[in-house]
TrEMBL record, chain B:
Location of the Rod shape-determining protein MreC beta-barrel core domain: 136-274
Biased composition (Low complexity): 288-298
Lineage, top ranks: Bacteria, Pseudomonadati, Pseudomonadota, Alphaproteobacteria, Sphingomonadales
Keywords: Cell shape, Membrane, Transmembrane, Transmembrane helix
Name under which the protein is recorded: Cell shape-determining protein MreC
Organism: Sphingomonas naasensis
Length: 170, 298
């Protein structure tokens, strides 16, 4: 068979699997907190947010723009942050990326990485300010967590691109 | 990356309105998130019921993962003990012979002790453990320090009960659901425990720092200064934690504040013991104003 798929007249294309796989992988990313480790410092990168940003960068139309509200609600339920923090911060990040899309129209991986790192940093720092008292000594651990998350983001990006590989790219 | 395709979805009004309503929904969702955030900031246990529903589903999964971790962790020790078993056998035989004398002496002392205790009618204050369960996961990605206990209200766990292990205090139960409970660890930035110095009974307050250590502040007027190595145990003040549970040991001092290392490591423990609250909560006295004062007629 050649690589060209035959679609009869009047039939629409099969929807890409990103439609259901994207929310599912974000939920699985949030569930990484079920790892059987009782941590005394925050060390785990926010995988739910990273997968969400990965999908947003790899395939912008994989999720409706309001889906981060629901995904954030689930993340708040399992992450230990007060309810509403991921709902608010994740949605703000996605909306901000939508605005950036109209400004930086043509961009490559490096800019995607920079934007995602900025979004992760915003969510982590704002989450820390919301959840913990101002005087608590969590900032060193938070900085390490941020650097780890930014360094791991290309991996998540590749993973999302691999999940999305059922669609022919032009 | 090419420019996104969804900016203006053709000439279809329906598609354009759909996109617009999507953005309205996102903004409304963010607003709802902000409201919920304010509510949960000013009243932290507000959404405990919703959280407990999710905890009921996720805790069995976490318990399974915890079991896998423990099984894998015990493999190297198992192999090592297989090869060391001969040497160990010989060593133990020798030790039994050595211990026989000590055992007989201890038996005499035990009998004497029992007789003396019966004489003075001393009653042991036992703080019974309600349940022994495992801490299966924690909020590893958040700056707050919560852990999940895989026992809940069906096993008798109630809100406010202290959680400890044989070496020391771990934290306090703050939310319960039928089969799981949420434990606020000692090192959480919002955890506060009344303690006293084991050496001289100096009252102090142990509050979590968030980085795995504990701040100790003197609670008495005369700040006598802390020394490295001072051990602190719970004082029983406040009635939640029963007295004399080891809490922390000072590792350095900063002026009036001492920085201490918690005695119990929540990640290394086998079982966490949930204890009764030291003093039961006082029954609420009915306020006369609630029923006695009738509403003034308009």
């Amino acid at each position: 068979m050649s690589g060209i798929e035959f679609i009869p007249m009047g039939h629409s294309e099969k929807p890409p699997r990103a439609v259901w796989l994207a929310p599912l992988t974000v939920v699985l990313g949030s569930l990484m907190t079920l790892l059987p480790v009782v941590a005394v410092v925050p060390f785990l990168p926010p995988f739910g947010l990273m997968v969400l940003l990965g999908w947003r960068m790899v395939r912008g139309d994989s999720m409706r723009v309001w889906v981060p509200v629901l995904l954030g609600f689930f993340d708040d339920m399992v992450s230990g942050q007060p309810l509403g923090s991921a709902m608010l911060l994740w949605t703000l990040c996605v909306l901000a990326i939508d605005v950036l899309d109209t400004r930086l129209v043509w961009r490559d991986f490096w800019q995607d990485w920079l934007i995602a790192s900025g979004a992760i940093g915003f969510c982590l720092i704002a989450g820390r300010l919301i959840a913990s008292p101002f005087g608590s000594h969590v900032d060193t651990a938070l900085l390490l967590q941020l650097v780890t998350s930014a360094a791991l983001f290309p991996l998540i990006y590749r993973l999302c691109a691999w999940f999305d590989s059922d669609v022919r790219k032009h | 990356m090419a420019p996104p395709r969804n900016r203006r979805p053709g000439f279809s009004r329906r598609a354009q309105y759909g996109l617009f309503i999507g953005y309205v929904g996102a903004a409304a969702g963010a607003l709802i998130g902000a409201v919920l955030l304010l509510l949960s900031t000013f009243n932290p246990p507000a959404f405990a019921a919703v959280r407990s529903v999710f905890a009921e589903v996720t805790t069995p999964v976490a318990s399974g993962l915890d079991w896998v971790r423990r099984s894998l962790g015990s493999i190297p020790a198992g192999i090592g003990s297989y090869f060391a078993v001969h040497g160990e056998n010989a060593r133990l035989k020798k030790q039994i012979a050595d211990d026989a004398i000590a055992v007989s002496r201890a038996q005499t002392l035990d009998q004497e002790n029992r007789r003396l205790r019966a004489l003075v009618k001393l009653r042991d204050v036992t703080t019974d453990a309600i349940v022994a369960a495992r801490l299966v996961n924690s909020s590893s990605s958040s700056t707050r320090r919560f852990a999940t206990l895989n026992a809940g209200s069906w096993q008798g766990v109630k809100r406010g009960q202290p959680v400890r292990d044989p070496t020391g205090l771990i934290g306090q139960v703050i939310e319960t659901s039928p089969n799981s409970a949420r434990v606020l660890l000692l090192v959480d930035p919002e955890s506060i425990v009344p303690v006293r110095r084991s050496r001289d009974g100096l009252p102090a307050i142990a509050s979590g720092r968030g980085d795995g250590l504990i701040d100790i502040r003197s609670a008495s007027v005369a700040s006598m200064g802390f020394r490295v190595g001072d051990a602190f145990v719970t004082s029983g003040t406040g009635g939640v934690f029963s007295p004399n549970i080891p809490v922390a040991r000072v590792i350095r001092t900063q002026g009036d504040i001492a920085i201490a290392q918690p005695v119990a490591n929540p990640d290394a423990l086998d079982f966490a013991l949930v204890q009764q609250t030291f003093l039961p909560e006082p029954t609420p006295t009915p306020s006369p104003s609630a029923t006695a004062s009738p509403q003034p007629a308009p």
